[in-house]
Every structure is written in structure tokens, then in C-alpha cells.
Specification:
By secondary structure, the chain is of the alpha+beta class. It contains 3 helices and 6 strands, in the order αββββαββα.
């Protein structure tokens, strides 16, 4: 059985080929960062991405993602995309990297 980590690992490795991308910590997880700003990490429930609020709202409305909640605070530009939507992970990771890196 393919795990979320199996799906995430090659995508993260591809992102890390960009010299601006590094690993760091975010909410007890190893996160990918572009120019020092986190844009993606894997949680117990799926791929967590920083995306424009309109994209986050669309993914939630389409039931393709859920809002990231930290304590009682809903993070407006963060979404959790479950493994069932892994066909979209690569494109969404690229969008998140561009968004955080200034190209989105």
C-alpha cells in the first residue's frame, strides 16, 4: 500500500533541486521552504500547503482540502490536501512554491 510519505517524498526531492528550497521545521514537522518561508509539509492527514486564500477557499468548497487549524485559529492561506487528492499534489506544491517565492 502506498503511504502519504511515499507520495510526498519524490515531490519534495524534486522541489529541493531548486537551490532556493531548503528544509526547516514548522508545527513539529519537516517543512519545505523557499527563501526561508515555509510552503509545504506532510502532516498526519495530508499535504499541507500555503496557497492564495482564493485557492484555499476553492479547494475547501470543492471538498478537495480542509482548512488548517492551529489551536482555535484557522490559517487563511493554508490548506490540508488529503492523500485521496494526491494526483493534484505536484501542481499544488508548485503553486505553493511560486506563491511563497514571489511568483504567485
Amino acid at each position: 500500500m502506498t503511504t502519504a510519505e511515499d507520495l510526498y517524498t519524490p515531490l519534495a526531492a524534486a522541489c529541493l533541486m531548486d537551490p532556493r528550497v531548503t528544509k526547516g521545521r514548522m508545527l513539529k514537522a519537516e517543512a519545505l521552504r523557499v527563501d526561508g518561508k515555509s510552503f509545504a509539509y506532510l502532516s498526519e492527514t495530508g499535504l499541507v500547503l500555503k496557497l492564495p486564500k482564493a485557492t484555499v477557499d476553492r479547494l475547501i468548497a470543492e471538498a478537495r482540502g480542509t482548512a488548517l487549524t492551529v489551536g482555535t485559529r484557522v490559517m487563511k492561506e493554508w490548506v490540508v490536501v488529503p492523500p485521496s487528492e494526491s494526483d493534484h499534489w505536484q501542481g499544488l506544491m508548485a503553486e505553493a512554491m511560486g506563491f511563497v517565492g514571489g511568483a504567485g
